[in-house]
Specification:
Layout lengths: L13 E7 L2 H10 L17 E4 L2 H5 L9 E10 L6 E2 L10 E2 L7 E4 L5 E11 L13 H7 L8
Parallel strand pairs: 4-5
Antiparallel strand pairs: 1-3, 2-6, 3-7, 5-6
Length: 154
């Protein structure tokens, strides 16, 4: 984490959550962190980069389980957003850390992986209650990516 190089202001550090798309993705993240490099992220509402949510429930909501539950891998992340945070845009690479709402973020899009540090991994089994229907937020391109298939242009 780049904290020392930016004045050591611990008040800027945020806790965040990142849901891995699969066991293989979780293992890759544990070894190499969240990938924020250009060309690595092919989708995202707030730009092309590495994402974290500010609460675990928001990260969990991005699971691609069609609402039927299953095994999940969630990372607790220490994040250091840049001193400037911009509102992200779908399909573009932001010039710096982006967010859904720069003044009160619930999701961040990072373009610099040195601003993220994985603290711990939580493996759990999600069991839906049946009280709410799952609203699918991600299309088939995310499902293919999580299953290790190449992203199609459809």
């Amino acid at each position: 984490l780049r904290l020392r190089g930016e004045g050591g202001d611990v008040a800027r550090v945020r806790f965040g959550w990142h849901l891995a798309g699969s066991q293989a993705a979780a293992e890759a993240m544990a070894a190499g962190g969240i990938r924020c490099e250009e060309g690595h992220c092919a989708c995202g509402r707030y730009g092309l980069g590495g994402y974290i949510a500010t609460c675990a429930t928001k990260a969990n909501a991005y699971a691609d389980s069609e609402g039927c539950g299953g095994e999940r891998q969630l990372f607790l992340v220490l994040a250091l957003p840049g001193s400037r945070i911009v509102r992200g845009e779908r399909g573009t690479r932001p010039p710096c850390t982006a967010a859904d709402s720069p003044s009160h973020p619930t999701e961040y899009c990072f373009v610099d992986g040195t601003r993220l540090h994985l603290v711990c991994r939580l493996d759990y089994q999600w069991v839906p209650t049946g009280r709410r229907l799952k609203t699918t937020t991600a299309g088939g391109h995310v499902r293919a990516w999580r299953n290790g298939s190449p992203v199609s242009s459809e």
